[in-house]
Amino acid sequence: LVLTGGSIAYGVGQVFSGFAGDRVSPRLFVFVGLLGTSLCNLAVPHLSVVPLLMVAWCCNGVFQSMIWPALIRIMAENLSEQAYRKGALAVSYACSLSTVTVYLLLVPLCLKYFTWQTAFYIPAAIGIVSALLWLFLVPHTCRKDAAPPTEKTPAAPAPVPVCHPHPLRVMWQAGIPVILLCVACQG
Question: How far apart are CA 101 and CA 179, in angstroms?
């Protein structure tokens, strides 16, 4: 029930986050998602009844669902179409690898040398640090430039800086490797 509730909340949250993410700062969405999912992980070891665990894990699903649409928006606004495709694929691969690493390394080590609660506390700590790094160290994003001006449409000053960075550099500067580790841990 707990995992099913979290999965349903994640799926419904994806729809909401997709729409809301177009109107809200993606930086704020990622921060709230990372911090929220970390707090859910902190709560789980202190809950002992299924209904409360379900509420915590449904909230976790909603917070998790806030992260991906915001990251996709950041990449779409900062990368060319080709770089975006490569970046999205790299994020997917990195997430899968991180998840497997957490499941095959972190959790078994926690269970062998510590308590099961540690398997929630460590990801929560990573998530909180990631959220704070994201909030305070990640630079504001810049949009890729619009169509170049023609003779019929004079150039207007761009309200947002224009950039053409390499996709891996954008992902690194945006803190995506840390976020991927965090998301894998939180899940």
Answer: 15
What's the CA dihedral at 58, 48, 187, 170 to 10 degrees? 80
- Residue 173 is predicted with a pLDDT of 65
Whether residue 78 has pLDDT greater than 70:
yes
Tell me how long the chain is: 187
Question: Can you tell me the distance from the alpha carbon of 122 to that of 9, in angstroms, rounded to the nearest whole number?
Answer: 23
Cα–Cα distance list, 32 to 7, 47, 86, 139, 141 (Å) = 19, 22, 26, 17, 17
Task: Give 49-69 as a DSSP string.
Answer: SHHHHHHHHHHHHHHHHHHHH
pLDDT digits (tens, 9 = 90+) for 90-129: 877 777 787 788 888 889 999 999 999 999 999 899 889 9
